[in-house]
Amino acid sequence: MAKTFITYQEALQILEAHKADFQINALPINDCGGQCLAEDLIADRDFPPYHRVTMDGIAIRHRSFENGIQTFPIQEVAPAGTAQKTLMDVNSCIEVMTGAILPQKTDTVIRYEDLEIKDGAAKIMVDAVTKRQNIHFKGIDITENTVIKKAGDQISSAEICVAAAIGKHEILVRKMPKVVIISTGDELVDVHETPLEHQIRRSNVYGIKNTFREWGMTADLKHLPDDKAAMETIIANLLINYDILVITGGVSKGKFDFLPDVLTTLGVVKHFHKIQQRPGKPFWFGTKGKDTHVFALPGNPVSSFVCLYVYIRFWLQKSMNIADEPLYVTLSEDITFNPNLIFFTEAKLSSDSKGTLHAKPIFGNGSGDFINLVHTDGFLILPQEKRIFKKGEVYPFISYRTKL
Question: Do residues 345 and 382 make contact, with C-beta atoms less than 8 angstroms apart?
């Protein structure tokens, strides 16, 4: 049964109960950036796989230096990428390059800057040499068959590097859903058009589209006129061809807010409509079958941003088994908010010399003031049961300048 005017916590519970199960497929490593990792990345060998030289110089047996030898005849050179060499005389040395495998019967590397090389011999010019210095020892980073990265996180450049190092030319990822973002309203014209006095350009959908791109998903853009029959025809087709419909506007109580009725007519089951929050109260969520999810956001830009980052992001994380790590910040000034609603207020982040993150609330001119978004970093989540929020108190924060 659908609920109306529910709490923030109830909305999250309903969204999680209706999470999707995105399929898993293999993609070439070059196409995996931003995708959701669907397998553990496991070391196929020790890292590093051999005792690796970290400085250009010479490799010696440290005991020889302890015994008073300062000058070492150079046996040969060991470049990176060549097979391991062996020190034949423990009182001699082998020249080694960064990345080379440490020669057998050596245990210490001395950099060129601490040497004088002359007449085929290397003289140590420093008084102290530490045994095992300048060597990256085999398996010290991670050992063979150890999980380096567990499934569930978004793939960044770091994961791409690791996957390449373990030979994953293809990576199992969650198949990203087909997304369409739909604007509504006859007052809207496209970005390339010059609006008349009574018109404005479509902007919400471009910001939302970019957010999905940051989350590793592409999205198409569509527009609905304020005509009920036309809306039914267009949405019916979109429900067939897309996994996620994100609609902006048309979900309040205006005379031309046909969207809830249209969705019901088309067989979309409403799970909730309206949340006890500010901004973004008239948020609508429903499903058609198991695979199609519809999110209808309020038309005001700040309200849309709140619902996108608070709820759709949460739903995607649950659907992709991504573990969320909440961010907590310290309030930089007192706030009073009297309505019995959860308050998502825009805030600017800063940090102090102790490493504490502070959030300064920035109050614009209501949920239509999207200009204010460029001066802030995200939303403080101020709980519904309080009215007065004091400087120094700690609250959750959702950033719209970070990854999914």
Answer: yes
Q: What's the pLDDT tens digit per position in 180-189?
A: 999 888 777 6
> What is the pLDDT at residue 256?
47
Hey, what amino acid is at 310? V
Residue type, 294: V
Which pair of tokens denotes residue 85?
Answer: 């060499």
Separation CA 98–CA 342 (nearest Å): 57
Side chain identity, residue 305 = F
Q: How far apart are CA 97 and CA 81, in angstroms?
A: 10
Q: Which residues pair with 115 in a beta bridge?
A: 124
**Type of residue numbered 224:** L
How many Cα atoms occupy the beta-carbon half-sphere of 250 within 13 Å?
26
Q: Is 212 exposed, middle or buried (0-12, 13-18, 19+ CB in 10 A)?
A: buried
Interatomic CA distance for residues 82 and 153, integer angstroms = 37
Please give the average per-residue pLDDT across 64-83, as a whole number.
97
pLDDT tens digits, residue range 145-175? Answer: 999 999 988 899 999 999 999 999 999 999 9
